[in-house]
Amino acid sequence: MKRALSFCRDEWVLALNGDSYCDFNSDVLLTCKNRVIAINPLVSCIVGCVLHKDADRYGGVSFDAEGKIKSFIEKGESCSQMISSGVYLIKKDAFANYPKAFSIEYDFFERMASEGRIYGCVFEGRFIDIGTPESYKSAHEILRDICLPARIAFFDWDGTINVDIGHLHDSKDLVLIPEAVDLIRNYNRKGYKVVVVTNQAGIAKGLYTETDMHILHDVMDEALADEDAYIDAYYFCPHHPDFTGECSCRKPEPGMLLKALSEFEADPSSCIMHGDKPKDAEAAKRAGVPFARVGE
């Protein structure tokens, strides 16, 4: 967080825990911030708080009538039903005098409480923990109805994203196709997941290793990043029937597409596959995904 804050431009930054969900009203948080600053210009952090019946599990928050946090109560100890929601407004320079490694709970929150520079803001929204397998499963069911299904833009690799030279594996031979880069960037901006599905028979033939392929992925990611584009996931088939036997992932089999559709929980009809060969089109057809041939 300390490093991330250094890249932020605004004076105040919104930070969210990655293992919890809170349906909070941002206007309430901003109104609270303005009120608190008027009371105490030295405030460094505002913690979004919610009432929760299992406060002992998470640890409680105690604050006064003005909202100034007096203490943070350890997990497992008897405490009020007010807990941190995992939503924070933090001043960009709040960590300026802290070392590279420190505990935000003990070194920052508790110090700010002792100095009277941290306040609480009560939310009425729903709080969902996703920090254990059980609570993750529960959250998955609860959030399913409010989350839009993923849309995937599938791309073949050789001949679609990069110039096909036959068993590309050396990064110095990587040449991206400009039209493909533009297309990937557009999908990124539209909120699609961009997924590469590629046959890598060269691995089965012993021409290169999976490590070589992953290195090439890294190089391609860097090249795309320079163009403000990115790939969300790579799915590859390392098989060839003459060397490793039959499989369900080598295109025209739809295995790679079906796996991505399942893992991203995407509706095939809302996705699209870009490729340059008949096997790409056939794999897309078998997976129920619309197909667009390169150049069309």
If you had to describe this structure to a student in words, what would you say it looks like?
This protein has a five-stranded parallel β-sheet. Strands 1-6-3-7 form a four-stranded mixed β-sheet. A two-stranded antiparallel sheet has the order 2-8. It has helices at 2-5, 26-39, 55-58, 104-115, 133-144, 178-190, 201-204, 210-225, 255-264, 278-287; strands spanning 12-16, 20-22, 45-51, 61-63, 69-72, 82-91, 118-122, 127-129, 152-155, 193-199, 233-237, 272-275, 291-293. Strand 9 (152-155), helix 6 (178-190) and strand 10 form a beta-alpha-beta unit. It is of the alpha/beta class. The chain has ten helices and 13 strands. The protein folds into two domains: 2-144, Spore Coat Polysaccharide Biosynthesis Protein SpsA, Chain A (Alpha-Beta Complex); 152-293, HAD superfamily/HAD-like (Rossmann fold), CATH 3.40.50.1000. The two termini are 45 Å apart. The model has no long low-confidence stretch (mean pLDDT 91). Helix content is 33%, strand content 21%.
Any idea what the shape is? Answer: elongated
Question: Can you identify the CATH superfamily of the largest domain?
Answer: Spore Coat Polysaccharide Biosynthesis Protein SpsA, Chain A
Q: What is the second-level CATH architecture of the largest domain?
A: Alpha-Beta Complex
Total beta strands: 13
User: Rg, please?
Assistant: 25 Å
Q: Assign the CATH topology of the largest domain.
A: Spore Coat Polysaccharide Biosynthesis Protein SpsA, Chain A
Largest sheet composition: 5 strands, parallel
Averaging pLDDT over every residue, what do you get?
Answer: 91
User: How many angstroms separate the termini?
Assistant: 45 Å
Helical content stands at 25-40%
Give, in spatial order, the strands making up the sheet with the most strands: 11-10-9-12-13
CATH class of the largest domain: Alpha Beta
